[in-house]
Amino acid sequence: MAASTSLLKESPLDPSCAAYDHTVLAGDHWLHPVKKGQVLRIVDVEGNQAADTLFYNLHEPLDRYSASDTIRRGHNLYLSTGTTLYSTRSHALLTIVADTCGRHDTLGGACSRESNTMRYSFDVEPMHACRDSFICGVQQWGHGMNKRDITCNINFFMNVPVTPDGGLSFADGISGPNRYVELRAEMDVMCLISNCPQLNNPCNAYNPTPVRVLIWD
Amino acid sequence: MEPIYEIELTGAGMWSRVISRGKTLRLTDLTGGANVGMLLYHAPERHERYNMPDTLKGQHIFYLRAPYGIHSDMGRLFASITGDTCGWHDTVCGTSDAELVEERYGVHNFQEARNEFYRNGRECFLIELAKWGLGERDLVPNINFFSKVVADVDGNLSYMEGHSKAGDHVDLRFEMDTLVVLNTCQHPLHPSTPYDPRPVKLSVFPNATPTMEDATMTVRPENARAYRNTLDYYLLSR
Ligand SMILES: [Zn+2]
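That is the input. Now the predicted structure with zinc ion docked in place:
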């Protein structure tokens, strides 16, 4: 099912002019600040990958991305061009300014080894999962952070449609090779991406692939 | 059956207690139009908490109702919804904050309104959480019992007024020893003015030990596995 095409918007920014350009390999995490006014682009290099993403106020880690505040302020479940991402203290963190995918999920959260035993089977517990990557990421940042600081994240490029009668499914991706989402930082933020290592989910054809991150000043 | 505990909360009230496994909490909407914002934590290990994403994706559902389960972020089952006359409980819209209440209802402080002063859900959660050594880091998307919010195909949300009627109730059978933190502030998308949060009755009953054949365990295989994880926890820790 295609997302509303009216939300698709290309960016005029030229990758060769980016101040920062990095590829996050499948299953790796990426921790990097994005300063107010900078633009962050996340590229789904091969298509149908999930970029599990958390944002924090760079100067006050207690103030962080809030899925429920973003949903209730935007009166919408999906993220796309024009969506502002809100923090737990009701600050505008970033605004999506371009999007060639059309829809991104913020209900599905991250995979974890513990929840994988619930979702799939007990024997998948040893497999690498996003929460462990997030834990590595917040420990790398410091501030004494741990699992408590990992809240309901964004899944860029994931399609989790909700039906009017309240069903929820993990549908085939509406993303594709080189689709991207671009966000303008409304304040200084720390971005933490877990490039999902999930090998149990048909959405990525059981094959995690890289994402590319670019930042323009 | 007589409850072993019962209390009535006024609108915009707050409450937090540990409810152990083997007990069922009944929430009753006394006048219709109530909202109970709820957060859940594992009582002895409070870093383990209610997880909205796992609850929804584990059960392929966008809202809560009987006989579905309430999942923790550690692959376990906090509670099963064993009774429900309401049929739809929101868990994606979060709670109100001071800014929202002021924008929609204005300011009523204690000096002019005494105990009718305006509170918001976030403030109530933080007050109760602080009593258990928890705080802002522990605020995650909560459940809003008695409130129905639907989404259209483009994801636009609509709050359904008049969803919960006087006497509607929901029963939560606890499968783990759980710190329950709740408030009775209005749903953040409740469109009407004036500020009018509604009272709720809380009743606790003992329940029989669940089996793997119970409705929550059979409605989705994910719930049976989460319950197995819960049983494993108690096997090791007791
Ligand atoms: Zn993942």
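The radius of gyration of chain A is 16 Å.
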